[in-house]
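Two proteins were folded this term; both appear here.
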Amino acid sequence: MLRRTVLGVLAVMTVLTPSRSFPAARTPSPPGAEAFIIWPPDGAVITGGKLWVRMGLRNMGVCPKGINIPNVGHHHLLIDTELPPFDQEIPSDRQHLHFGAGETDARIELPPGKHTLQLLMGDYNHVPHDPPIYSKKITITVK
């Protein structure tokens, strides 16, 4: 009886332990996959702060989060930050925008000043692929 109780407690602890404490399993990326920012171009000067970001992808499909099929993922836009660890879920905050519905463009608003933008593809669990698929980092200025 005691053994079943201990095993039951261990099973519950295993289920309830947050997955973030361990590296996430990574989804393979397709060969030759590339993410890129279509618009705005590197060096663009934007007046007013509201802009559309158009996201591009080659040799890979876009799908909503939660869809676990090979060679697909969804965009994450990194604003004024570095790439996150590739073995963990991509953060979700003002600097890491998730497009988990499969969006390929988005309207964002930025304060005046210089800003960097970069795309990072995430799998069905928001974890970067292996190897990771990310765009070149661009710099824009908002006036």
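Next, the second protein.
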Amino acid sequence: MRYGSDFNGFALLDPLKLSEIASQAVEELLREGESANTLASYRGALRYWAAWYQLRFGRVIALPLPPSAVMQFIVDHAERTTAAGRRHELPKEIDELLVRLKFKGKTGPMTLNTLTHRVSVLSKAHQTRQLTNPCQDAKVRELLSRTRRAYGKRGDLPRKKDALTREPLMAMLETCDDDGLRGLRDRALLLFAFATGGRRRSEVTGAEMKHLRRTGDDAYVYRLAYSKTNQAAADRPENLKPIEGIAARSLTAWLKASGVTDGRIFRQVRKSGALGDALSPSAVRDIVKYRAEQAGLPDTYSAHSLRSGFVTEAAAQNVPLADTMAMTGHRSVASVLGYFRPQE
């Protein structure tokens, strides 16, 4: 059966060419499907590239970049060993200005993780725009590969944050007892994150009442519909996270005192004691650091310590690895073992 070029009052599309509206829809779906943390890290990396490029070359950045610019970026930020000692090529004045303008946290060379992340973000920016990708240039790839080896030979490996196991976690919880509504929230939040498998920051602050079901006096089940390890929101048995005992009691106390019945579970607590908007993912990091400081613990804990703490404590309690993975959501043994921290 054949139809004309204008069927039922609307124009037919060219199958070999994506329309402008469809192109916009594709971009919006890709953006919506990306996690908020990933988008934030991409934006931060691209802002840094733009600032560095303008200060280094005296012109506004424009894609595609030549491979030589990417190689300059690598030697500017990667520390290397010379006869005169360790050095990198970013001029001191530019380095200090980038810090002053808050594009960098501190002066000096980048960690290997940060450097490779910045390069991978630039690579993705070229890839999505279907531009010639300088990061795939043979010389750039070889330089980055040798840089990784150099860091490895020197033993400059990423330093992982300590695991927030039972003992330090209990010390942090004690600081919450005399801190009013904020203390009730922090206690419930820390235990919720730990008890549900060491949840990530965005998963904690994104937790909603509609996914929480009470199953007893001291028991809940939380349905984790979406996570980093289940980005397709597949319906799996391990999506159901039990919350029992002290974690359940702390959650009940927070919900009762705050009056939260719908929407996000964890909210801001203003100085007046009134509830504010939902917490941002960075607030989980701030809560962990603040409670660790209040407990007199060393500055070696972060929000990720909850995840490594759950895995490490599970191993100490001889929990089967399959059960641990069901709680964390990991699909790979290698991935979950990456969160294990050997204990004395």
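The chain has two domains: 20-154, 166-337. The first strand starts at residue 6 and ends at 7. These notes refer to the second protein only.
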